[in-house]
Amino acid sequence: MSFKDLYAVNRIRMISLLILEFLTSGLIIGVSYINTYQITAIKNRKWQQFIFLITLSLILFIISYAGLNVCQYWIEKQIQQYNHQIRFKIVNHYFYDNKTHSTAQVQNRLTNDLNLIKDSKIAVYTDIPYYLAQIIFASIGLLLFHWSLLIVVLILGSLRFYLPKLLRPAMQAVALKFSQANKQYLDTAEKWLDGLSELKKFSVGSQLSKIMDHASDTLESANIARTGTMQGLAVLNKATSALLQFALLAVTAILVTNHIVIFGVIVTVESFSSYINVSVKMLATELGQIHSVDRLSSEVNADTAVVEHTGELQSPASLITKNVSVKFPNGKIIKFPDLNIKTGEKILLT
Name one GO cellular component term (predicted). Predict the structure, then answer.
């Protein structure tokens, strides 16, 4: 499961999506850049200039908002089509590999594992261009104000980017452990609940409760460990975010005081700082999330491999049942109707 595979689902849509995300991000930064001159126009009491700039900002904001909504629609459509292809390959692999697969294993792979990879990896691929564009355009804006602002951003932004790598091995471990715990829980539920009638017969309900509680506790512990690791990454990002904001404001105050930049920069730099903070934070976090499911992605890739098989399955000429019944331990008998279904016929049983 990779960006290349996601891109191959619909190349034209994916290219259009990436371009639109990049341009939309630029428009958002452009609105903040225009705000610099709006504030300065208010300070200098140039009301006509202020009205023109605020009207332009409103138009650009509406365009960027519409662009973001189009991007979200295209992203979801691309991912859903991609997941459909993956599920189809997994089902084919399980069908032809001549191995026994429990219901819990198949269910876990087709639902929990794919959703985990989608949230931590596939959906992130389409976010990266957007956040990169915000960093690029915001950096250009800061450079246009004064080079010292950009230097502060580059130094502290680089620091924030590399810190999360310290937690990457731990994130990989907890993601895989969570998947295994969920699989074990579903497998336990399947095995015990399938024999529920026998459990009632021998009155071992307390043992069922004990085993299910243990499986549930294991799953809960795995989820808590994964959440704790993600919180650790968030703490690192917040610390570097505070440092970046303080440094930018300090440098801006010096520049405004010495009349090196216009007054409006002292307000706009907050917005640019926020864009850069959020973008670098999201890039660092999401890149960490991508690597956290590397092993799980490899397992899913193995389950999508094409299994060589000879011949094709032939549909039966007919399906006939006669005198089929099921007798339960309490003596109750359920009889099924006699059927004679020929090729091409459809029968509804209610």
Answer: plasma membrane
**Average pLDDT of the segment spanning 37-42:** 82
CA distances to 21, 319, 344 from 28, in Å: 11, 64, 58
Nearest-angstrom CA–CA distance, 49 and 271? 21
Give pTM, 2 decimals.
0.57
pLDDT tens, position by position, 71-86: 888 888 888 888 888 8
pLDDT for 53 equals: 85
Q: Where are the alpha helices (DSSP H) in the chain?
A: 3-9, 11-43, 47-96, 103-107, 114-117, 123-125, 128-145, 147-162, 168-194, 196-202, 205-257, 265-292, 294-303
For residue 287 the two structure tokens come to 């890149």
pLDDT recorded at residue 185: 60
By residue count, the chain amounts to 350
- Tokens representing residue 97 in the block: 């590999």
- Do residues 136 and 27 make contact, with C-beta atoms less than 8 angstroms apart? no
Locus of tokens 């499911």: 293
Chain-centroid distance, C-alpha 139: 27
**Do residues 22 and 130 touch, judged by C-beta distance below 8 A?**
yes
- The domains found in the chain, sorted by start residue, are 3-307 (1.20.1560.10)
As a whole number of angstroms, the distance between CA 114 and CA 258 comes to 56
Check whether 313 has a pLDDT greater than 60.
no
Give the percent of the chain with pLDDT over 70.
73
Residue 340, helix vs strand vs coil: strand
